[in-house]
Write a structure and sequence with these properties.
single chain, Rossmann fold, Immunoglobulin-like, Alpha-Beta Plaits, globular, seven-stranded parallel beta sheet, alpha+beta, binds calcium ion
């Protein structure tokens, strides 16, 4: 077995640009505020906060402090935190200089919703009732560790050195949190918090894995009726075996999503194959992340810089990479699947293309694909919702002010339009509901082609265009 495997190519996790372990020191236990009276550990130690009475002097405090090991003097509140033998606690409570004793409990940070979730419209999708419930996502990665903010529905190890799918690298746990961290009161929230994730460990502790193990994990995904396969991994080398495997998965109705890669170069495999949804990464400003690969194969883009998610140590950390963008798309596919459970993989892929914010040049492009994914919103009464016609072409589109530094454009309002989109030489420069836009990114003595379309939920109408020469 081992010798056979040596002949196989190893693939790498599409890494993590800066595993800038900006580790937040978040206590992971749900450390409940147990009443001190219920703690009866014979011979044990307890971490306690002793509150002194107001009129206690330093000498009296010192006597109490000698009863245990001092952690901190809490001068602000006239108290001390200490570790005390359990059997001494009752005695101490009766001490006339002690006002009260309470456990030194652990607190958790409130659940935060990152720019990524905001940027892909996830909170609005959750509010409308979509959470990915009933969808199954296979995470082919370094495994997934036990974490208080994650539920793993199952999985398997495909590496030869362990039968456990626990994560010995950290990558798979982070990816899984982006898809499906629980919507509770701790940590972070995944894009599809109620989707079921399955940990398929095919990558080792160093972030690489054999092609053969990955193919076995794809086979498992087909056999176990997964809806989505997340592969935040890749290689620059083409492989007919890998191509056949992802094709088989797609033919079996599984949406396969993979990272474009982080070399600021062409798209990696398997993302490059047409049966796979290739994902590029955007940053906080909706620009292509500096490291993201790109090319005509890029299908959609998603947030991929400084993404806070679950760590394999049980807390949370920031990571960057197309590895982080890919699970946003896996979550998005879960939401789309939940919205239209009868849709085939091919239909869901079309829905993926439609639910985007167009970035860069108008329409599909090599950096953002169809655009930045936007989580779907379930309408309350789909039967009652009327079919809205697309808006007509904006009239009176003209430049009302032209200087050497800016161009001000105006147009007339259209009744059923919810937004207008202006492009300069086919690059989107404005999208919104105003009836005017001033373009300050122009140079003098240049000729620009401006186009405008009006849009609403049904799409956009035909464009109007003007040519403007700056002074
Ligand atoms: Ca959470
Ligand atoms: Ca575009």
């Amino acid at each position: 077995m081992k010798n056979n495997k040596k002949k196989n190519r190893k693939m790498n996790l599409v890494n993590v640009m800066a595993v800038s372990a900006l580790l937040l020191s978040i206590p992971v236990s749900t450390a409940s505020a147990k009443a001190i009276d219920t703690v009866n550990v014979v011979g044990g130690k307890e971490k306690l906060i002793i509150n002194f009475k107001d009129d206690v002097n330093e000498k009296e405090k010192s006597q109490i402090k000698r009863e245990g090991k001092i952690k901190r003097n809490l001068e602000l509140i006239n108290a001390v935190s200490m570790e005390i033998d359990s059997e001494k606690v009752e005695q101490l409570k009766k001490n006339p200089n002690v006002k009260s004793i309470e456990p030194d409990i652990k607190l958790n940070i409130a659940q935060s919703i990152g720019y990524g979730q905001e940027g892909v419209n996830a909170p609005e999708s959750w509010s409308s009732g979509l959470t990915g419930k009933g969808t199954k996502v296979a995470v082919i990665d370094s495994g997934v560790s036990t974490h208080p903010d994650l539920i793993v529905s199952g999985g398997q190890s495909f590496v030869d050195y362990t039968n456990s799918y626990a994560d010995d690298n950290g990558h798979g746990t982070h990816v899984s949190g982006i898809i499906s961290a629980e919507n509770n009161d701790i940590g972070v929230v995944g894009v599809a918090p109620d989707s079921d994730i399955f940990a398929l460990k095919a990558m080792d502790q160093y972030g690489s894995g054999y092609l053969s193990d990955i193919i076995e994990a794809i086979d498992w995904s087909v056999a176990n009726n997964m809806d989505v396969i997340n592969m935040s991994l890749g290689t620059t080398q083409a492989s007919s075996a890998l191509k056949s495997a992802v094709n088989k998965a797609y033919q079996n109705g599984i949406l396969v999503v993979a990272a474009a890669g982080n070399e600021s170069s062409s798209v990696n495999y398997p993302a490059k194959y047409s049966s796979v949804i290739a994902v590029s990464a955007t940053d906080e400003n909706n620009k292509l992340a500096y490291f993201s690969n790109y090319g005509q194969e890029v299908e959609v883009s998603a947030p991929g810089t400084n993404i806070l998610s679950t760590s394999s140590l049980g807390d949370y950390e920031n990571m960057s990479g197309t590895s982080m963008a890919t699970p946003f798309v896996a979550g998005q596919l879960s939401l789309l699947k939940e919205l239209d459970p009868t849709y085939t993989a091919v239909q869901l892929r079309e829905e993926l293309h439609k639910n985007v914010l167009d970035l860069g040049t108008a329409g599909k492009d090599k950096f953002y694909g169809y655009g930045l994914i936007q989580a779907p919103v379930k309408s309350v009464n789909p039967e009652e919702s009327e079919v809205v016609s697309t808006p007509v072409t904006p009239s009176n589109f003209k430049a009302t002010k032209v200087t050497n530094r800016y161009v001000t454009l105006n147009w007339d309002s259209i009744d059923n339009a919810t937004y207008y989109q202006v492009t300069r030489d086919n690059v989107v420069v404005y999208k919104g509901s105003n009836l005017t836009f001033t373009d300050t990114s122009v140079s003098r003595y240049k000729t620009y082609l401006y186009k405008i379309v009006a849009g609403n939920e049904s799409g956009t109408g035909d464009s109007a265009s003007i040519t403007v020469k700056t002074r």
